[in-house]
Amino acid sequence: MVTRLFRSALLALCLPALAFADEPNLDNGREVNGTCAACHGENGQGGKQGEYPRIAGQSAKFIEFTLKSFRARERINLPMFPYTQERELPDEDIRDIAAYLAAIELPTRPPKFKDTDDALTRLTAMQKVMLIPRVEGDIAAGKTLYESRCTTCHGDDARGKRLVPMLAGQYSSYLMRQMQSFQAGERPHDEEKPGEGVLKGLKEAELQNMLAYFTTLQNIEDK
Ligand code: HEC
Ligand code: HEC
């Protein structure tokens, strides 16, 4: 009797924990996104020409890791800091919003509509279309530089993987700001000492060439 009681008590304690240990709850993710949408847009597409980065389609691992770094102030983000505090954003919410955003696909071309599609359907679909405008820069030189220093982690297609973020499809101005903050040692990239590493010594024009190259890699429909 005692053991059975003990066992069911143990089960009662463990089951709820097991139930939400790993499986993300996408409905909750959608709800949390209500807060994020104020800055990053309803579909996580970002805005204000990259003041707010695109977060949709980024890997769930990277989003989780990043939200936790903001929360711990390892990566400084003043606008977001209050939203990432434990009371506002517990670990389960982080897991759910990361899975929710990772699953959003943003097409780079307007969809083909059917005559029967109503205005709302069209508007909703158009709000998801995301194409980073071409920027100045030498595309060929950017490709050579990118391939010599960056593909091992960010991938040939610049889409990243796991803890490495995508670069293709992200706002150019946002990427420039991040690269300069890596060079200044203000945000850790993937190096042992702040400011050292693959971006060290690269001139602004060289960074700009890579940004120009990234804008040629973003048509997911072409792949
Ligand atoms: C008040 C505006 C604001 C709100 C609300 C906000 N963010 Fe942000 N977020 C920003 C800004 C600004 C940056 C860029 C910071 C920088 O330049 O380093 C950012 C950066 C990020 C990044 C890093 C992207 C990258 O590629 O490096 C992630 C991930 C992110 N936000 C997720 C979220 C999520 C999830 C929420 C909702 C829980 C959210 N944000 C709510 C303003 C906001
Ligand atoms: C050894 C692996 C590695 C190499 C090589 C590498 N990166 Fe990264 N990169 C990362 C990781 C990991 C992050 C995420 C860092 C973080 O947020 O803590 C990152 C982040 C970035 C970001 C920020 C993107 C965002 O959404 O916040 C940019 C821009 C970037 N890298 C550009 C480059 C460029 C350009 C090169 C080549 C010159 C390069 N990286 C080489 C691993 C690497």
UniProtKB/TrEMBL annotation:
Gene Ontology terms for molecular function: electron transfer activity; heme binding; metal ion binding
Keywords of the record: Electron transport, Heme, Iron, Metal-binding, Signal, Transport
PROSITE patterns for this protein: CYTC (PS51007)
Positions in coiled-coil regions: none
Residue span(s) of domain Cytochrome c: 24-105, 137-218
Signal peptide: 1-21
Domain of life according to the entry: Bacteria
PANTHER family for this protein: CBB3-TYPE CYTOCHROME C OXIDASE SUBUNIT FIXP, CYTOCHROME C4
Protein name: C-type cytochrome
Organism: Denitromonas halophila
Lineage: Bacteria, Pseudomonadati, Pseudomonadota, Betaproteobacteria, Rhodocyclales
